[in-house]
Each structure stands twice: as structure tokens, then as C-alpha cells.
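LOG
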Amino acid sequence: MRGALPLTLALTLALAVAVGCQSKKSDAVVAAPTTGAMPATAPGQGLSGKVLERLDASPYCYLHIQTVRGDVWAAVPEAKIEKGTEVTIANPMLMNNFESKTLNRTFPEVYFGTLAPAGGAAAASAPGMAAPAPGMASAAASGAAPMGTPPPSPLEVAKLEKASGADAQTVGEVWAKKGGLKEKTVTIHGKVVKYNPGVMGRNWLHLQDGSGDPAKGTHDIAVTTQDLAAKGDVITIKGVVRVDKDFGSGYTYPVIVEEAKVVKR
């Protein structure tokens, strides 16, 4: 990935109560799938059908949908969708054995995506379900969306001052020295150019600082964190460099910073 996996990108119902009743629990941090479960793309550009049931678990809304392929469950950012409504899930990504702690339920199969506009086609780049970003390796040539963040845009950030400290690196330096920085902590000062919250139990962002080569995709680095941010924020993060991170379905990040903390805004 560099996302669904292969983004964006959030009231709640107890499993035992009827649709429309609320739970006091929260899925603000979504549980990771059980061991061995990996994301996979759903066939086609979208998943359409009639809503049979809705379970709210903030920041998600779980929809039981009747489709031409049979009944399925899908999870989208929370929305008030009435029973009987015809919906289309944009860029659905299948998760097997996915556990919702709020609902105290494990779904054998659930498709994560976003609601397409009423009467419209599935979005080509929904939050958290976007096409691979520059620098992302994909064994699948189908263009299937990865879980995580949208592809970073071309260089759009003027050169920023480098973070301070012994572990400070620029975005370009992390790419250039990724082998030597593997599993090491780095501090990066940059601008958030993409942000997708609450995907796979973490928030995803892309940082740029004016370094690196846009032609090679080394001007932009993906970061996962439990902290909040917003597109346009200039922040300093501290996290662990991971190399060739594989999120399944053939999607890998050559380099990504994980378990990051926003240490300065």
C-alpha cells in the first residue's frame, strides 16, 4: 500500500440494540484485524445496494447492504443513513475477521470505504481508499486502492527549516538514508499535505518540507500516528522509520514513519 492499503478520512450503536439507538462506546481507534487478516480489493469501482441495517460506532457507521452479489457489511465515516436507502460505497476494501471493540463484534468480512454522492458514481479517490502514492510499490497492476492516504501532490511546500536534535532529518534525507535509518527514531519538521483520520486504527498523513525529488517521489513521506492533525498544518513529528512496510495485497511502502507523535505545532 501505500494505503488501502491499497487513504481523507468520523452516534454509536450497541450491537444488541435496534438500529437508531446509541451506544456510549467509541471506535475512535479501530481495532486491527485479527492475525492473518489482510485487506483486499472489492471487485469493481463501487459496492451498491439497499441498506438493511445500520450500526453506528463512531467514527464509523456499519451498513448491512443487500447487493446483487448478496448481503455484505460495509464501514464508512459515520452518517445518518436510513433503512431502505440505496447507497454506493466508493473504493471498497475488504477486511477479513475485523474486530469492532465498540460493537464487541468481529465481522468475518467488512468493506471499508466512503459513501459516494447520491446518484453519483463511486469516487475515484475516496479518503483512505486512494490510488497508490508516488514511491509506493504495488504488485497489483489493477490500480486497486490501498488503505491509508491519497497520493501526495507534486512539490507544493517551500523549503522549511529542519527540525532540531540529534535525530532530526529532512524528508529527502529519510528517503536517501532509509536503509541506515530502519527501525530508528527520526524527527521531521514539515507541512501536512494530505490527512486521513481513523483508517486501520490510526491517522495517516503526508509530510513535505521542500526537500527531496518530486520526480522520484522522495519529496513526500507517509506518517501514521494516533495524534490529530489537519491538512495545511506545519508540525514536527517524531516516529520510527520502517522500510518496505507491507500492508498486504501487494502494497508496500519503501519507507514510512510509524508510531509518530506530534511534538510541536
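LOG (cont.) second protein
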Amino acid sequence: MSNKIKVLDNGFVEFVDKMGDDKRVVETARISYNKSVLSNDRTLTKQDISLLNSLIKNGHLTPFEHLTITLHIKAPIFVARQWMRHRTQSYSELSLRYTNTDMEFYVPNKDRVSEEDIEEINKVYAIVYKTYKQLIDNNVPKEVARIVLPVGQYTEFYTTINIRNLMHFLDLRLDKSAQYEIRVYAEAILKIFEVQFPYTCQAYLVNK
């Protein structure tokens, strides 16, 4: 699987880095019984896998806080604002106060809105983008000119999160009641989770 998964029309979720692995969960869990043994062998035994499942099934989730993952996200601003309500993640976001960037805007597909609605959405985007450029050309500071831009504009950010909180994020954002546009980002994250922490992800899916 590629480190970058395309989402919506112009968005993506990209794996950047991680700390820890599935073995680290059971190592940190066993310190409770003074039985933790750090090993260069990162292969999980049947007992390790059983412990992973037991931890999630019984809600003993602290050991999963010792794993973290960093992702690079490109998403519409309205998705990012829903996302950043999860205050257990650390964020660094692109700022139009400091940079000029080619702007992209989210356009829902025909499963979400009609062709006529798509035309109207694109008309509005064209108007606000033209206005923004005119303000910049008139030497209006970028931090002021950006006020006309819509929440459908794409932004980019990095997020770092521990796996306990990632599983909570997925609980909420994979739910059928979650808005479609953030749910598809959660689906992409789940694919990355499965690759980077396969046994933990499997235990999560089986026991959640």
C-alpha cells in the first residue's frame, strides 16, 4: 500500500512516521505484573496477541498510549475544523498568513449533490477566489484578504496522535452518523493503521 491515500476529489491522508509497534503494547502492559521483558525480537507470540485482544476487550487502554503515529492530511477546511475538535491530537496547519498557495476547493460528487448544484458551487468558488486575488493585488495583507475564502477550501496539516486516542477517533468518525466527508478520511486512516500496527488494529476491529 502507498503511504498516501487519495480522499475526496483533491484530498489525501499520508503516513509520515510512527513510534513503537504492536510488541511495545504488551511490553508496557506487563510492567503491571513486573513481567515486562524488552526484546529485540519484535515477533508477537500467541500469548502476546491474546493479551492485545484482552486489553481492548476489557478497556485497559493505557498501554496503547505508548504508540504514536504522525499523518499528513489534505482536507477541506470544514473537515479540518471537525477533526480539530479532537483535542487529544497535536496539529500544525498551513497558514495563508505566511504563504501563497494554489487554492483548491472541494466539490461534492454527483452522489452528494445535483449537477446544477455543482455548477452553482463552482460559480461561488470562482467569485470568492477572484475577490481574494484582487485584494492581494490591492496590497491588502494576506491575513485580511483570506476572510473571503470559504470552508470548502482545502488546507493541509500534520497530526500526531497516540493509538488509544486514534481508536477513539475512529470509533466516532467511522460511525454511520458521522458526516460522509470526514468518514472517508477515517476509512483511509484505518487502512494505514492496519499496515503500521496490524495486530493492534485487528484486535481493535474484533473487540470494539
